[in-house]
Design a protein that fits this description.
single chain, 211 residues, alpha/beta, TIM Barrel, two-stranded antiparallel ribbon, 7 helices, globular
Length: 211
């Protein structure tokens, strides 16, 4: 599987992730996040890096103008729409760049995931499933029941997110779904907000990433 490490705030750690063989690094462009990248990383420092990994810009209900600006400034390869963006908006952004559309899972909607994703089938490249907490857009550090994904009609590659860390390695190895594409980690592999535990990420890469 592929690995995405989200919430990167240091140039040095971007380089370390690239050297380790991480597939995606997430830069958060949501001002309410403690990992808000505009307060941490200068665009010129990021854009000039010779990276093999793909830089993912994470946006929450941002304007098209803002997204286009950050794609150019930071040299983003992928945009993750992590808010309440419409299928039409997602489709428009997908004409510019690869799009991951996120969906927040709750006990109330877990039986209707297929209805949540269906309008987006033709307007994004990947799905991402994360745990929902009222008032929060990701970063909850909590898991949902992954097994429910097998009871829904998901026919697009997806990222699995929400409170995942090294303690979940064996569970990830045994979780099967024909469209399970990548694992997304963030708060559970941190020393402090926005500072990643490189030893933990090394373990995840060694155990999970398809070479």
């Amino acid at each position: 599987m592929k690995l995405k490490v989200c919430g990167i705030t240091q140039v040095q750690q971007l380089l370390q992730l690239d050297e380790l063989g991480v597939d995606y690094a997430g830069l958060i462009f949501y001002s309410r996040s403690v990992r808000y990248v505009l307060n941490k990383l200068k665009s010129k420092d990021v854009q000039q890096l010779p990276l093999s990994l793909q830089k993912v810009g994470v946006f929450v209900n941002a304007s098209e103008e803002d997204i286009k600006t950050q794609i150019e400034l930071y040299g983003l390869d992928v945009v993750q729409l992590h808010g309440d963006e419409t299928p039409a908006f997602s489709s428009h952004i997908s004409n510019l760049v690869t799009v991951i559309k996120s969906f927040r899972i709750t006990q109330k909607n877990e039986q209707n995931i297929d209805w949540m994703v269906k309008p987006y089938e033709d307007s994004c490249d990947y799905y991402l499933f994360d745990t929902n907490r009222p008032g929060a857009y990701g970063g909850t550090g909590e898991k949902f029941d992954w097994g429910i994904l097998n009871y829904n009609k998901i026919n697009k590659p997806f990222f699995l997110s929400g409170g995942i860390g090294v303690r979940d390695i064996e569970k990830l190895k045994t979780f099967t779904h024909p469209f399970f594409y990548a694992t997304d980690v963030n708060s559970k592999v941190e020393i402090e907000d926005g500072i990643k535990d490189i030893n933990a990420i090394t373990e995840l890469v060694n155990e999970l990433v398809t070479k």
